[in-house]
Amino acid sequence: MSGHDTGGDGMTEADRANLATARRLYEAAARGDWAAAEAELHEALEIHEAESMPYAGVYRGRDALQRLSAIVYGYWPGTRVERLGMAAGDGRVVVFFRMLIDAPDGPLAHDIVEVNEFRDGKVAVIRPFYWDTGAMAALARRLAQQGDQH
After folding, report:
1. Taking the CA atoms of the chain, what radius of gyration do you get in angstroms?
2. Cα–Cα distance for residue pair 45/64, rounded to 1 Å
3. Which of 15, 24, 39, 125 could form a disulfide with 88 if both were Cys (CB 3.0 to 4.6 A apart)?
4. Contact call for residues 120 and 43 (beta carbons, < 8 A)
């Protein structure tokens, strides 16, 4: 066991600090307090969205999370996100979510894991992993088709 382990849970002091930073970030974002959220983000933040998602790509800058959130919630109307838990280790924090989407054929619950990487005590990289990007892409196509019909 390393001399940096300061508790019986196997987390280092850095892991605990990263976990506290991530908690502040996600709590502020959930409240819509973007100034507080951005205080926990590195100025060179990168968010990497999967290529199969309708908002694929890399979003950069301290305001990237706010910009991307507006796109995601605009794309999935009636969506709610529940944070289920967090875990820290090896310089990363993993955040577990459930996205609840009001889909045309009934509610869809979709699990997401976001891996947060840190630089200088701030979140520098966020990589969301969706349980089933194929199902999300199919729903996006159905929603787009409905939009074209109106």
Report:
1. 17
2. 7
3. 15
4. no
Q: Which amino acid is at 16?
A: R
Task: Give the Cβ contact number of residue 138 at 10 Å.
Answer: 11
**Confidence band for 147, pLDDT divided at 50, 70 and 90:** low
Residues 114/128, Cβ–Cβ less than 8 Å: yes
16-20, 69-73, 85-89: least confidently modelled range: 69-73
- Give the whole-angstrom CA distance, residue 49 versus residue 28: 21
pLDDT in tens, 111-133: 999 999 999 999 999 999 988 87
129 within 8 A of 110, measured Cβ to Cβ: no
pLDDT tens, position by position, 58-84: 999 999 999 999 998 888 878 899 999
Cβ pair 32, 51 in contact under 8 A: no
Angle (CA) 141-143-145 rounded to 5° is: 70
30-69 in b/e form (b: 16+ CB < 10 A) is eeeebeebbebbbeebebebeeebbeeeebebbebbbebb
